[in-house]
Amino acid sequence: MRVIGIDPGTYQTGFGIIDDDNGHLSYVASGCLESRAQQVSKRYESIYSQLVAVLEEYKPQMCAVESAFYYKNPQVTMRLGEIRGIVILSAIQWKMDIVEYSPLEVKKSVVGYGRADKTQVRKMVKALLGLKTISGANDVSDALAIAICHIHNRKSITRYLIKTI
């Protein structure tokens, strides 16, 4: 099964794609969908277009996305929700099942400790995937961690956001 993990962000949305062959994890691809457009609609359009290109190229079967959490600034929370909406709609259009994980669940699944820091997560992702380096921002290693988390937990998953046919 090919899983795409997505770490939504307002300017950078990380993605990580991993194949699971009966418990053997293989790195496929990762990167950041970036847009610095000032106009929000242009930023969203850019992120959507980049995500669709990734889905077309790598054809994942499952989408795992970081769940929403709340910032002190409600506008940031709203913008992240809108990015998550773009991600979820894109996955629906590709007929993928979608599941969400909290940052705490991801860290606990990948590192073994729910309060792990970004450095610990990045180090474990490299170890689990047999990578020497992970290029890109923490959004990339976080997205890979989200995909790994789903692979580790998929047999016990009961909280699908959307179940596609």
Automatic annotation (TrEMBL):
GO terms for biological process: DNA recombination; DNA repair. It catalyses: Endonucleolytic cleavage at a junction such as a reciprocal single-stranded crossover between two homologous DNA duplexes (Holliday junction). Mg(2+) 1 binds at residues 7, 139. Mg(2+) 2 binds at residue 66. Its cofactor is Mg(2+). Its EC number is 3.1.21.10. It is an enzyme of class 3 (hydrolase). Signal peptide: none annotated. One of its GO terms (cellular component) is cytoplasm. It is found in: Cytoplasm. GO terms for molecular function: crossover junction DNA endonuclease activity; DNA binding; magnesium ion binding. The keyword Cytoplasm applies. Pfam families: RuvC. The active site is at 7, 66, 139. InterPro entries: RNaseH-like_sf (IPR012337), RNaseH_sf (IPR036397), X-over_junc_endoDNase_Mg_BS (IPR020563), X-over_junc_endoDNase_RuvC (IPR002176). Its main location: cytoplasm. Keywords: Cytoplasm, DNA damage, DNA recombination, DNA repair, DNA-binding, Endonuclease, Hydrolase, Magnesium, Metal-binding, Nuclease. PANTHER family: CROSSOVER JUNCTION ENDODEOXYRIBONUCLEASE RUVC (PTHR30194:SF3). Homodimer which binds Holliday junction (HJ) DNA. The HJ becomes 2-fold symmetrical on binding to RuvC with unstacked arms; it has a different conformation from HJ DNA in complex with RuvA. In the full resolvosome a probable DNA-RuvA(4)-RuvB(12)-RuvC(2) complex forms which resolves the HJ. Belongs to the RuvC family. The RuvA-RuvB-RuvC complex processes Holliday junction (HJ) DNA during genetic recombination and DNA repair. Endonuclease that resolves HJ intermediates. Cleaves cruciform DNA by making single-stranded nicks across the HJ at symmetrical positions within the homologous arms, yielding a 5'-phosphate and a 3'-hydroxyl group; requires a central core of homology in the junction. The consensus cleavage sequence is 5'-(A/T)TT(C/G)-3'. Cleavage occurs on the 3'-side of the TT dinucleotide at the point of strand exchange. This is Crossover junction endodeoxyribonuclease RuvC. The gene is ruvC.
